[in-house]
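Standup notes
- HV: blocked on the assembly model, inputs below
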Amino acid sequence: NAGVTQTPKFQVLKTGQSMTLQCAQDMNHEYMSWYRQDPGMGLRLIHYSVGAGITDQGEVPNGYNVSRSTTEDFPLRLLSAAPSQTSVYFCASSYGTVGEKLFFGSGTQLSVL
Amino acid sequence: KQEVTQIPAALSVPEGENLVLNCSFTDSAIYNLQWFRQDPGKGLTSLLLIQSSQREQTSGRLNASLDKSSGRSTLYIAASQPGDSATYLCAVPARGTYKYIFGTGTRLKVLA
């Protein structure tokens, strides 16, 4: 039981490049979400999903896309990277929606030059 | 709009002290409140989850209380140890949504 797995751990991009951050969980969790963490701003929700085929926007969705084709995977796509997207990204999941503990991955540190 | 505040931002205490971390939220209509621990360069680990119908939860040396009417939660750490050094964050779901709102955390350092 690996929990929530994020890849890669580190990534450097040039402005305008695109990439996908991977997130997978093996706990059969319905709820999955993506956060970014910036100094002094805490964690902010980017997108979330309450089940396969269902996604919705969080606080800061611009510049990011998500899809949820399976229960296990919830990739986050950066369409055209900008320096403002330099951050640490965390994926989180829970069995239910708001009544259950959130489990976090170990994060992806992304730098956009 | 739900806002979550944690004060102080940083705290340094000698080993063995009992300490209290504070979390305030502006909208009392919450499903639950979670406390998390984050070690440097790591993800968050859920410590305690308090449902809206509960007043407190305990796990080992940790005790979290919830007062919805005043919009406050406290995390009590008994007999602090250097291994407790980390950042502690609280989070609540925004009203009627699945969106968790996080505080900016309290960075705790326990000195040996």
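- HV (later): unblocked. The mean pLDDT of chain A is 94. The radius of gyration of chain A is 13 Å.
- Next: hand off to the docking folks.
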